[in-house]
Amino acid sequence: MRSALMVAEKPSLAAALATILSDGRAITNKSSNSSCAVHEWTGTFKSESVRFKMSSVCGHVMSLDFPGKFNNWDRVDPVTLFECPTEKKEAVPRMRIPAFLSQEARNCDFLILWLDCDKEGENICFEVMSAVESSINGDVYSPSVTFRAKFSAITDKDIKAAMVNLGRPNENEARSVDARQELDLRIGCAFTRFQTKFFQGRYGDLDASLISYGPCQTPTLGFCVQRHDDIQTFKPELYWVVGVTVRTLEGRELPLDWKRVRCFEKDVANMFLAGIKEHTEAVITDISSKEKAKPRPSALNTVELMRVASAGLGMGPHHAMQIAEKLYIQGYISYPRTETTSYSENFDLIGSLKLQQNSAKWGADVRQLLADGINKPKKGHDAGDHPPITPMKPALESDLDNDSWRLYDYITRHFIATLSKDCTYLSTTLTFKVGMEIFTYTGNTLLDPGYTGVMHWQAFGKNEYIPDLKLDEAISIHDSRLVECQTSPPDYLTESELITLMEKHGIGTDASIPVHINNICQRNYVTVGGGRKLTPTTLGIVLVHGYQKIDPELVLPTMRSAVEEQLNLISCGEADFKAVLRHTTEIFRRKFQYFVLNIEAMDQLFEVSFSPLSSSGKAHSRCGKCRRYMKYIQAKPARLHCSHCDETYSLPQNGTVRIYKELKCPLDDFELLSWSAGTKGRSFPFCPYCFNHPPFRDMKKGFGCNSCTHPTCGHSVNSLGVSSCVECPTGVLALDPSAAPKWKLGCNRCDVIIQLFEEATKVTVEEASCECGAQMVSVEYKQDRTKLPKGQAEMTGCVFCEPAFSSLVEKQRAVAARVGGAPSRGRGGGSPKPPKDKMAQLAAYFV
DNA sequence: GCAAGGTC
C-alpha cells in the first residue's frame, strides 16, 4: 500500500484535520518528535487504498540569517550587509523539524501540504518540500508527488472539499516571502548595527544597549511620537458658546445645545447673545423621536481581543495573547489567532451557547436568549484562517487565575453578545427658536438593552428626562449667557488606538503586532503609563525626529506598504524575484548610505538630550595606560570609559562589577575588577583590558582571569584551576577568591558552580594534585568556626575525593537556570573528562 | 547583540 504524508502548520491543526479526514478513525502514534504528533489512518486517494500520515511543523521551519563571519559587529561594516550572502538556518534547532519531516517522509509516495492558506503558509510548503526532498519516494517537485490543499475554514465540508480538489503549491507567493525575509534582514540589521555603534560610543547616559531599526517597529514608534508632537505643538484656542437654559412649567431647567455649537470670535458671539437677550421665551419648532441602536459586536478576532484587553482590562497585547494561548491549550477557548469576524455557516452557535447556560455569571442571560431564540450574528469578515474566538467549555472563576478569568469572562460575554439583539433606545429631540437662533434639547430613553445586558460595561445610562411639550409652545428662558471655553490638546496614544493604526496601515500582523509594541517598550523608546497610554521617551523622540530630518521615509508607515507592493509583483507573477529584490535592496542600500553620511543631523538632537561619554559616569578603577581613573558608565550596556585615552572598555553584563582589592593585571597594569551575578550566580575576576583585548591566542574576547593562561599570574587558570568541568567538554573549574567568604569554584565556560567551604578564612589551590587529577585544595577556618572533623582549623585535600570535604562541597548550576538540579558531588556520572593537567596546558600554550 | 514572520 502506498503512503501519503500530510503536513499542517501547527500540531493543533494536524489533529483537527486528521479527525475530519479520517472520520475520527485516526490513531495518534508516538512520534519521534516531542513537538509534533503523527496521526495515521487508511483511506482512499486517487482511487487506491492509501496509508495516510498527518503531522505538522511549528510555523516556519527555517529562518534567514547571515553566515557567521558577517555577524561580527566589530569587523563588518554594516553596508556590506546589503550585498553579502545570506543563509537559511533551522528556525528552532532544538525541535529538529527538518530531520523529523525527512524521517516521516521515508517510504511515502505523496506529500499533501495543509499549511495555512496565506503567503507565509505557501513559503512553509517549500520549506517542507526541501526537508523531505531526499527521503520521499520520487521527485518532490513533481505534480504527481506533491499536492497543495486549499481550505478556507476548518469545517468538515471545507476540508473534505479541499481534499478532493488538491492543487499545486504556489511558488511565486513563496518567493515573495523569501524576498521579504531578505529585505527585512538586510535593512533591519544594517541600520540597527550602525545606529547602535554610532550612538553607544558617544553618549554615556543612553539607557539602551541596542538602538534598533525595523520596517515595522520604527513606524510603530513613529505613531507614538507623532501624537507626542501633536500635543507639544498644540496651541489652545479660545471659543465661545451661547448657553441658554429654559424652565418648564413644572419648574425643571433644561440646558439647550446651540445649533452653531461654538464661535471663535467673541464679538460675533456677543452679537448672537444680544439677539437672544431681546427675548424672554423660546418657541418649540419641532419635536422628533427616532429609534436608535447601539449595534451588537461582530464575532471576536485577535486584533479586537487585544484592543479590548488593553483598553478595558488593562492588559498589554503581549500578556493578553499569552493568557489567550494558555486558555486555548487548556481547552477553554478556540484558537486565539484569527483575523476572521464571521461564524461559518455550520458553526454550532446554539451548542456553544448551551455550554454557558448554567453559569452563575451569565447563565440567566443565556437561558433567556435560548428561550427567545438567538439573533442572527452580524456578517463580519471571513479571512479564511480560523473561526472567531469563542468559549469552548464552561469555566468557574475558581478554575482560573485572575487575568485568565477576566479574559475568559470577556470572550464569553462577547460571544453571547454577538447572538443577542442590538441595544435600542428612543432619542427625542426638541428644537427651539429664540429670535433667529436655533437650539435643541435631546433626551434618550432605553427601549431594549439587548446585548448590553451581558456586556454590562456598555450599558445604557439612566433614562433622560423628556419634557412634555407641544409644537409652537413657548417656554420661558431661565438664563442666557456667553460661556468661554478652550480647545484642548489630544492625549497620548492609547495602546488600543496604536493597534488600530497598525492594523489600518498594515504594520505587522495579528501575531506580530504585540511583538512590535513590546519591542519599542523594551528598547526604551516608549513607556506604558496609566490607562495604557504610550509616552515616547527622549530616545524614542530624538530617533524619530532624526529620521524625519535625514530621510522621513524611514519612519513613514507607507514605507512598509510600498515594499509590500513590490513583493506583490512577485507573488502574482508579474515580476521576477531576483529583479525585485535587486531593485529594492539597492534603494535601501542608497538610503542607508545617505543616512550614514547625514547622521550628524540626528546626532545634533542626541547632543541636546544626552551627555557625552567623557562627562558621564563616576570614577571607578585605574587605567593601565595613563594611570588615571576611568569612569564607570552605569547605563546599559555598562562600560568603563577612560576620558584621557578616549577609550571605552566593555564589561561583563547583568551582574555587579567591583574593584578587586586594588590588584593589577601583570600584563597591562589595569586594575583588576570582579564580576558577580550574585552568590548563586557565576562570578570571576577580570582585567578590563584583557576582557576586551585577549592577551593570549587561546583566550577569547569577553573572558576573565579564570580563562587566562598567563604562566605565573596568581589569578590565572593555571594558578586557580582545580579540575576540568564536570559537565561541559572544554571548561575548567577555577577557584574564585573574589567571592570569599562565599567561596566557590566556577566553570570558565558553562554555568556549573561548586559552592564550598562557606565562611572559611582562606582557600588556596595547591601545586600538588590528587590521584583523580584534580588539584589539591587547602582550606583554613577560624578555630571556633571550623567545620572540619575533629575541630581541625586547616586541611588540604581533594574536593572530589576527600571524605571530610564531602559535606562542605555542593555542585550547582549558576543563577536561576534550573531549580533543584540534582546536586551531585564530585566529578559527576557518565564519562569523566580527563583532568586538567597544568603542565600539559602550559605546554600547549607555549608550543 | 540586529528584522519580521510563523508557532510553543
Question: Summary?
Answer:
With 847 residues, this protein is of the alpha+beta class.
List the helices and strands and how they pair.
Elements: E1 2-8, H1 11-21, E2 27-29, E3 38-45, E4 48-56, E5 62-65, E6 87-90, H2 97-105, E7 110-114, H3 119-132, E8 146-148, H4 156-163, H5 171-200, H6 217-232, E9 238-247, E10 253-258, H7 266-277, E11 281-294, H8 302-313, H9 317-329, H10 349-354, H11 363-372, H12 402-418, E12 423-434, E13 437-448, E14 474-486, E15 493-494, H13 495-505, H14 513-522, E16 526-528, E17 533-536, H15 538-550, H16 558-571, H17 577-597, H18 599-609, E18 618-622, E19 629-633, E20 639-642, E21 647-650, E22 656-664, E23 671-676, E24 683-686, H19 688-692, H20 717-720, E25 721-724, E26 732-735, E27 744-747, E28 752-756, E29 762-769, E30 775-780, E31 794-797, E32 809-813, H21 838-846
Parallel strand pairs: 1-4, 1-7, 7-8
Antiparallel strand pairs: 2-3, 3-4, 5-6, 9-10, 9-14, 10-13, 11-12, 11-14, 12-13, 15-17, 16-17, 18-19, 19-20, 20-21, 22-23, 23-24, 25-26, 26-27, 27-28, 28-32, 29-30, 30-31
Helix pairs in contact: 3-5, 5-16, 5-17, 6-14, 8-9, 8-13, 9-12, 15-18
The protein binds one DNA strand of 8 nucleotides through helix 3, helix 5 and helix 14.
How would you describe the overall organization of this protein?
Residues 816-847 have low confidence and may be disordered. This protein is α+β, with helices and mostly antiparallel strands and 847 residues long. It contains 21 helices and 32 strands. It binds one DNA strand of 8 nucleotides through helix 3, helix 5 and helix 14.
